[in-house]
Specification:
Helix content is about 10%, strand content about 70%. The strands form two sheets. Strands 1-3-4-5-6-9-10-11 form an eight-stranded antiparallel β-barrel. With about 230 residues, it is mainly beta.
Length: about 230
């Protein structure tokens, strides 16, 4: 079979200080406050080879994009306003001065993109026009790229990931190594060689997305619901 799927994903981030000092903990908390999850998604294609006993091997490729929002505030303007104080007779009895600091909120979209090769094994069980399945295995990461900005421990303003790369102090790794995948699916036959399918799944990479020199460890567990088509070759 050839399987084509797309999935909305929920990315649950684990962010921990790499060191044990109070400064390390404060920096991790600042990142937690300033970076919030956004809609994430994935899509892919797989070849599934099944035996008559129901054993299945699957492989292909999968693209994942994790999205987050970085929000930060800048002081943009200081404003003084003189306000007249009006008495009971409508006359001006005094003046007051109002001092305001105008803050502007900025939002930066952070994107984490990866391409993986799944190597999975599982079992399929047909029931009339339905097919129930469960499988799991490993994900081999082939590419990991990032776009966006973050606060640094010593910085007052966010710095782009690209700037850190150019300075020779990248925050993130180029590859994520080996991850794991677990899914359970259901498919319904709409033609003799075509099925629609749905597959709730979990996937994760146990190692940190950041380099060993960076101040925080950053990893994700992702849950999704893949919807797609399954075509028998």
């Amino acid at each position: 079979h050839v399987e084509l799927t797309a999935s909305p994903d929920l990315a649950m981030r684990q962010l921990e200080p790499r060191g044990s000092t109070s400064e390390d903990a404060a920096y991790a908390q600042m990142r937690e406050r300033s970076e919030q999850p956004d809609f994430s998604y994935s899509f892919g294609a797989r070849i599934a080879a099944s035996t008559r006993f129901g054993l299945t091997l699957l492989s292909g490729f999968n693209y994942t994009q994790l999205n987050e929002r970085l929000r930060y505030v800048t002081e943009t303007e200081e404003r003084f306003t003189i306000i007249n104080i009006i008495g009971p007779g409508g006359q001006i009895t005094g003046v007051d001065t109002l001092y305001e600091t105008i803050h502007r909120e900025h939002t930066i979209q952070n994107r984490y993109r990866s391409i993986d090769i799944p190597v999975l094994a599982g079992y399929e069980f047909p029931v009339n026009r339905w097919l129930l399945s469960a499988h799991g295995g490993i994900l081999i990461n082939m590419l990991f790229r990032q776009q966006g900005s973050m606060y640094l421990p010593e910085g007052e303003m966010p710095v782009s990931f690209a700037s850190l790369e150019q300075e020779g102090t990248p925050a993130f790794r180029n590859r994520l190594g080996i991850g794991w995948y677990a899914g359970a699916g259901v498919a319904f036959k709409i033609r003799h060689n075509l099925q629609i399918m749905a597959e709730p799944h979990l996937r994760a990479y146990p190692k940190s997305f950041t380099t060993a020199q960076f101040a925080t460890k950053q990893s994700y567990t992702q849950a999704g619901l893949a919807i797609g088509l399954r075509y028998q070759i």
